[in-house]
């Protein structure tokens, strides 16, 4: 960059104020943009920011800040055990841009959220220095003090209103740029029909970091590809046995031709097309997803509740017209096989199209270069055909609504099998509990846009199979089990199980809604009583409310609900407890995946959060 005649020159070592605080760090000037009148500076750990001239000072007139003074002043110190910058640096394994953020715990009130944030900035990770008295008294500084509030409040406005998109787009008075060390640069791939894009990407190295391999890496991917379908087959066959113990040896494989049923395939295709039709109808809200790396926010048609209502009406009419839904029970294996074939075809399509996707459209994981691993994990973050979002659709519609349809069919099958006028209590509970879970998910469909799957995971075999096969054919195992293995429940047992379910549901819904509301609008007045930790990405972390109890309160609620789903099936067999066992494993693994991802994103701010909120899922236990 050619430097015009400006106060500070490229290469100068100066003191740069950290946005939102009155602390200065030694920085090097990288350049000056005459248009925006901002200096690009680099901090010692490699973080780049754009600063105004007022926020830059000459090194003379500064002295090293005494840490104890800095810390004892800090309101946040009262909340945190280990605040030594040195210690934090040692403990933090993956320092990102956040590692230099002024990590503060802020308590905001409705009226003075911004001011409080400014006052409460308590900790920095570089060796902060402050100006000498002489320098502080200078007239220049008086002006600067006034300006400090202006500029800092701009930062907060930025981080509270349109935070993510703007920080990524490099707009506004300060820019927190991605650190170069955020990940390995990957060779750019571009769509052949987008020569402009290709040229641009070839010129600039791709910013897509490849995340560390998950799920046991490349070998693990082979394993899961074989194990997951085999497991679905195993539990379906077990469900038909008189003694369906999970620890029994697998039943003998039925002849191959029993797997295939063309009619079953037609039903599955019809069901998916029907759901796709409901999804594209211009009914319901168009919700915005979280900002992507490019700053773009995709739009999603969140009409899931409408879709399940219409589906229920259509199914009711079909049953009234004589359709025999017990077909689903008697052809469970064939329906699962047909859906499996569709999920494999879909995964192949997803992998092939991801080879043509631009690098900015790829997820952080799933780009290892190993075909099998990438096929399994998924490469493209939001594969779309025009506005039709494949990942969102698959996650929220055919499998999820199909789950309720299958449960309902199992209730009818139970009545048929045992000549009942009504389903058993156990079957009713399982049906109602899971229906509530699905309907709630669809009612709050927008909230899915802030979950890990939608924000971070690529769409590949794992999710395609998970959404289309795993959910409808294994999450229904309790109802499937009850058809052949009835379990009588006393009234007190029913009351106890319903109470447990409601407690779990309350925790699950409240915590998910709190995070979703906060992510969508961090300055939401309803959340102003909550404490937050700002991070260098512009986003903050909730540190009180539900997210101050444990790091994943939503998982806790979900697990309590899972317990309530299995209890109606009794303790005679392990099969109906499969979901509970699987779910513990899934959520513990998800929690650790999320931990690594958040540590990568938020650096020391995340470490700070973990020190403040010590337990992951169960208070005082885990
Ligand atoms: N039934 C089932 O099979 C499954 C159900 N679920 C349920 O789906 C829901 C979503 O789960 P999942 O996507 O795994 O995870 P979360 O909804 O918990 O999302 C995790 C993300 O939330 C953000 N976050 C974490 N801590 C904080 C905080 N303190 N303050 C603000 N934001 C924070 C981070 O993203 P960022 O900071 O980038 O916004 C983090 O990556 C859960 O209720 C879970 O139980 C999940 C898996 C399977
Ligand atoms: C096959 C693998 C071993 C695991 C696949 C995992 C998937 C089945 C799950 C990953 C996250 C999910 C969510 C839901 C269903 C299961 C999958 C797809 C969810 C849609 C269920 C309904 C909830 O209300 C929810 C919060 C919207 C869930 C979001 C995550």
TrEMBL record:
Location(s), subcellular: Cytoplasm; Endoplasmic reticulum membrane; Nucleus inner membrane
InterPro entries: ERG24_DHCR-like (IPR001171), Lamin-B_rcpt_of_tudor (IPR019023), Sterol_reductase_CS (IPR018083), Tudor (IPR002999)
Pathway the protein takes part in: Steroid biosynthesis; cholesterol biosynthesis
Segments for region (Disordered): 60-205
Signal peptide residues on this chain, from the entry's feature table: none
BP-aspect Gene Ontology terms: cell migration involved in gastrulation; cholesterol biosynthetic process
Molecular function via GO: Delta14-sterol reductase activity; DNA binding
Membrane protein topology class: Multi-pass membrane protein
Keyword hit for Aminoacyl-tRNA synthetase: no
PROSITE patterns: STEROL_REDUCT_1, STEROL_REDUCT_2
Segments of skewed composition (Low complexity): 94-109
One Gene Ontology term, aspect cellular component: nuclear inner membrane
Reaction catalyzed: 5alpha-cholest-8,14-dien-3beta-ol + NADPH + H(+) = 5alpha-cholest-8-en-3beta-ol + NADP(+); 4,4-dimethyl-8,14-cholestadien-3beta-ol + NADPH + H(+) = 4,4-dimethyl-5alpha-cholest-8-en-3beta-ol + NADP(+); 4,4-dimethyl-5alpha-cholesta-8,24-dien-3beta-ol + NADP(+) = 4,4-dimethyl-5alpha-cholesta-8,14,24-trien-3beta-ol + NADPH + H(+)
Domain Tudor: 6-64
A Pfam family this chain is assigned to: LBR_tudor
Keyword Membrane among UniProt keywords: yes
UniProt feature, compositional bias: Basic residues: 66-93
Residue spans crossing the bilayer: 219-239, 259-281, 302-320, 332-352, 463-483, 489-508, 529-550, 562-588
Keywords, in A-Z order: Cholesterol biosynthesis, Cholesterol metabolism, Cytoplasm, DNA-binding, Endoplasmic reticulum, Lipid biosynthesis, Lipid metabolism, Membrane, Nucleus, Oxidoreductase, Phosphoprotein, Receptor, Steroid biosynthesis, Steroid metabolism, Sterol biosynthesis, Sterol metabolism, Transmembrane, Transmembrane helix
EC number(s) recorded for this UniProt protein: 1.3.1.70
Classification via SMART domains: TUDOR
Composition skew (Basic and acidic residues), residue ranges: 112-123, 141-169, 181-201
Family: Belongs to the ERG4/ERG24 family.
Protein name: Delta(14)-sterol reductase LBR
Organism: Neolamprologus brichardi (Fairy cichlid)
Origin organism lineage: Eukaryota, Metazoa, Chordata, Craniata, Vertebrata
């Amino acid at each position: 960059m050619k430097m015009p005649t400006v106060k500070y020159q490229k290469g100068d070592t100066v003191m740069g104020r950290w946005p939102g605080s009155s602390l200065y760090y030694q920085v090097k000037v990288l350049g000056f943009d005459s248009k925006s009148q901002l200096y690009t500076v680099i901090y010692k750990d490699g973080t780049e920011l754009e600063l105004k001239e007022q926020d830059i000072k000459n090194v003379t007139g500064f002295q090293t800040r005494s840490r104890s003074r800095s810390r004892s002043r800090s309101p946040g110190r009262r909340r945190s055990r280990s605040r030594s910058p040195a210690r934090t640096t040692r403990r933090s394994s993956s320092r990102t841009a956040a590692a230099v953020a002024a990590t503060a715990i802020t308590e905001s009130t409705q009226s003075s959220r911004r001011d409080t944030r400014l006052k409460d900035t308590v900790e920095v990770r570089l060796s902060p220095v402050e100006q000498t008295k002489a320098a502080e008294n200078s007239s220049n500084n008086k002006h600067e003090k006034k300006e400090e509030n202006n500029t800092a409040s701009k930062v907060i406005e930025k981080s509270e209103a349109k935070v993510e998109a703007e920080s990524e787009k490099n707009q506004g008075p300060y820019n927190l740029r991605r650190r170069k060390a955020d990940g390995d640069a990957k060779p750019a791939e571009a769509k052949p029909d987008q020569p402009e894009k290709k040229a641009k990407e070839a010129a600039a190295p791709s910013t897509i970091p490849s995340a560390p391999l998950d799920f046991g890496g490349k070998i693990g991917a082979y394993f899961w590809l074989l194990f997951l379908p085999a497991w679905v087959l195993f539990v379906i066959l077990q469900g038909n046995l008189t003694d369906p113990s999970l620890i029994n040896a697998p039943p003998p494989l039925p002849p191959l031709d029993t797997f295939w049923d063309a009619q079953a395939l037609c039903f599955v295709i019809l069901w998916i097309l029907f759901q796709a039709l409901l999804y594209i109808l211009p009914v319901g809200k168009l919700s915005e997803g979280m900002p992507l790396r490019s700053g773009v926010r995709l739009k999603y048609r969140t009409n899931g509740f409408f879709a399940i209502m219409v589906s229920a009406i259509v199914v009711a009419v079909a049953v009234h017209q004589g359709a025999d839904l017990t077909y689903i029970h008697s052809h469970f294996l064939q329906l699962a096989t047909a859906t499996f074939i569709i999920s494999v075809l879909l995964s192949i399509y997803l992998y092939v199209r991801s080879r043509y996707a631009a690098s900015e459209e790829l997820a952080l994981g799933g780009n290892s270069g190993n075909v099998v691993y990438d096929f399994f994990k998924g490469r493209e973050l939001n594969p779309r055909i025009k506005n039709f979002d494949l990942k969102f659709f698959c996650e929220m519609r055919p499998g999820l609504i199909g789950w309720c349809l299958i449960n309902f069919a199992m209730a009818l099958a139970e009545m048929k099998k045992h000549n009942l006028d009504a389903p058993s209590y156990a079957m009713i509970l399982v049906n109602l509990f899971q229906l509530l879970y699905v309907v709630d998910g669809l009612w709050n469909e927008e909230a899915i846009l802030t979950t890990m799957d939608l924000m971070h995971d690529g769409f590949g075999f794992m999710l395609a199979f998970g959404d289309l096969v795993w959910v409808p054919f294994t999450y229904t195992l309790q109802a499937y089990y009850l058809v052949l293995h009835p379990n009588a429940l006393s009234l007190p047992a029913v009351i106890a199980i319903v109470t447990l379910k409601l407690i779990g549901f309350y925790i699950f819904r409240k915590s998910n809604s709190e995070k979703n509301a906060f992510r969508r609008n961090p300055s939401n007045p309803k959340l102003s009583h909550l404490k937050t930790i700002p991070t260098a990405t512009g986003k903050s972390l909730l540190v009180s409310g539900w997210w101050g109890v444990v790091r994943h309160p939503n998982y806790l609620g979900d697990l309590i609900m899972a317990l309530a789903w299995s209890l109606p099936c009794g303790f005679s067999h392990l099969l109906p407890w499969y979901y509970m066992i699987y779910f513990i494993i899934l959520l513990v693994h998800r929690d650790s995946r999320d931990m690594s991802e958040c540590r990568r994103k938020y650096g020391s701010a995340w470490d700070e959060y973990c020190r403040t909120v010590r337990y992951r899922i169960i208070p005082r236990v885990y």
